[in-house]
Amino acid sequence: MTENTNKSGLPANLQLDTLAVRMGLPPSQYGENSEALFLTSGYVQSSAESSARRFAGEEEGYTYGRGGNPTVTSFEMRLAALEGTEAAISTSSGMSAIMLMLFSLLKAGDHVVFSQSMFGSTIKLIGSEFARFGVESTMVPQTDLAAWKAAIKSNTKILFAETPTNPLTEVCDIAALADMAHNAGALFALDNCFATPALQRPALMGADIIMHSGTKYLDGQGRVMAGALCASAAMVREKFLPVMKNSGMILSPFNAWVILKGMETLGIRMEAQSKRALEVALWLEKHPAVARVYYPSLPSHPQHALAMKQMSGQGGAVLSFDVKASNAAQARERAFHVLDGMQVLSLCTNLGDTKSLLTHPASTSHGKLSEEQRQLAGIGQGMIRVAVGLEAPVDIQNDLAIGLNSIQ
Ligand SMILES: *Cc1c(COP(=O)(O)O)cnc(C)c1O
Predict the structure, then answer these.
(1) What is the residue with the minimal CA distance to atom 5 of ligand 1?
(2) Domain end: 263, 281, 304, which one?
(3) Chain segment 29-42, per-residue pLDDT in tens
(4) Cα of 119 to ligand 1 centre, how many Å?
(5) Residues 224 and 274 in one domain
(6) Closest residue by CA, ligand 1 atom 11
(7) Which of 235, 263, 291 is the last residue of a domain?
(8) Residue 45: domain span
(9) Distance from Cα 120 to the centre of ligand 1, integer Å
(10) Are 280 and 398 in the same domain?
(11) 149 shares its domain with 17
């Protein structure tokens, strides 16, 4: 866990791009310019007195790897600086960050309101696992503010959303939901995986907790798993840190080190990948074999204006589209035909890579839903999700065209 005090020695008021490259602990006595990787599980204490103070929480310093690590600290400092929060705490994956948040803030009898369009494992974790421990929850349509409001009860502790969502790129109003939560005495938590702080800084719009899967765009190169929560120093210190230490979901220093490097190019990657995604989305919209494209930068997107305001005018790197078909079986066959025709892009259930990754949500991430639930979620058999990477847009288009052109 790291509080965003001035441990870095950097001047105040640096811009996001600068913080992404520079924020972290100062170098060790060796003056390394690239952040060091500290692979150690224990820390030698200078005296028994100092060791006692550290264990009592009266002195800063590392004691044991489950409680902290300097490379992990640098990652947390960098992420908190980018998100504009006082502190951050990192975990072994995005899901363990959500686990840490819920476990730290809820008890039996509490209630959570969350979007029905959230990440599949998030829905399972809240709706099934936490339900076994007496935590109540209500799922609401992501973009329907009235439904969020109507779902709030006297025991509601957290409103939890994700924007844009996977795979439909639905956008919710962060400031409005934060206000609604605060008026009800609840916290507003936001999964900021898709936009990242390079495009969207929810803390500046009132969100109390910003959750990340570092596995996605923070690393950005498809190498390691990581997660994090960004919040006030008091919340991180008093709520999250004790649970993190006792439950052992700490981020590995190696993964923190990989992501520290990844974050140095976050701004330029998000800009370049958003630009490519828009180009591909515009091309897909004109293709005769495509029925519909979902991407926040397209004027046809239902929350286009809100998205552009909230996401620094960019749409992010994920888009989805439906192939044209006259029934569900034909739609599935055609979507599979497009995916199996690719010669360059990857059929891979991940996102946030420099390589473009494609998936068929109806048979993978949303494969366990009943046909009725899937219809409700708006995910048809003809839908393909594209997490656009850094390849030349024309090559991405040509690869998709192999399948698309032969189903007209
Ligand atoms: C991947 C993802 C998660 C989960 O993160 P992991 O690192 O895979 O545990 C949560 N939310 C969103 C939006 C994601 O894309």
Answers:
(1) 94
(2) 263
(3) 999 999 999 999 99
(4) 7
(5) no
(6) 119
(7) 263
(8) 2-263
(9) 9
(10) yes
(11) yes
Q: What CATH code is carried by the domain that includes residue 37?
A: 3.40.640.10
**Single pTM value for the model:** 0.96
Residue 162, C-beta contacts closer than 8 angstroms, at least 6 positions apart = 115, 117, 118, 119, 122, 142, 190, 191, 193, 194
Residues paired with residue 189 on neighbouring β-strands, in sequence order: 160, 209
Domain count, the chain: 2
pLDDT, tens digit, 9 for 90 and up, residues 88-104: 999 999 999 999 999 99
Q: Which of 79, 93, 95, 162 to mutate to test the pocket of ligand 1 (most atoms within 8 A of CB)?
A: 95
**Protein residue closest via CA to atom 6 of ligand 1:** 94
| Residues in the ligand 1 pocket, defined by CB under 6 Å | 93-95, 119, 162, 166, 191, 193-194, 213, 215-216, 225, 227
Q: Same structural domain for residues 164 and 279?
A: no
Cα dist from 236 to 40, 108, 112, whole Å: 24, 21, 20
The pLDDT of residue 95 is 97
331 shares its domain with 216:
no
Q: Provide the token pair at 55.
A: 């264990």
Q: What span, in angstroms and rounded, lies between the C-alpha atoms of 345 and 354?
A: 11
Pairing of strands 2-3, 357-359: unpaired
CATH of the domain at 294: 3.90.1150.10
Please tell me whether residues 258 and 322 are part of one structural domain: no
- Out of 100, 119, 217, mutate this one to test ligand 1's pocket (max ligand atoms within 8 Å of CB): namely 119
| Shared domain check, 257 and 271 | no
- Ligand 1 atom 8: residue of nearest CA: 94
On the question of pLDDT at 193 being above 90, the answer is: yes
Q: Among 55-64, 210-219, 252-261, 333-342, name the one with the lowest average pLDDT.
A: 55-64
Ligand 1 binding pocket mutation candidate from 91, 101, 121 (most atoms within 8 A of CB) = 121
> From ligand 1's centre to the CA of 49, what distance in Å?
42
Task: Give yes or no: residues 26 and 72 share one domain.
Answer: yes
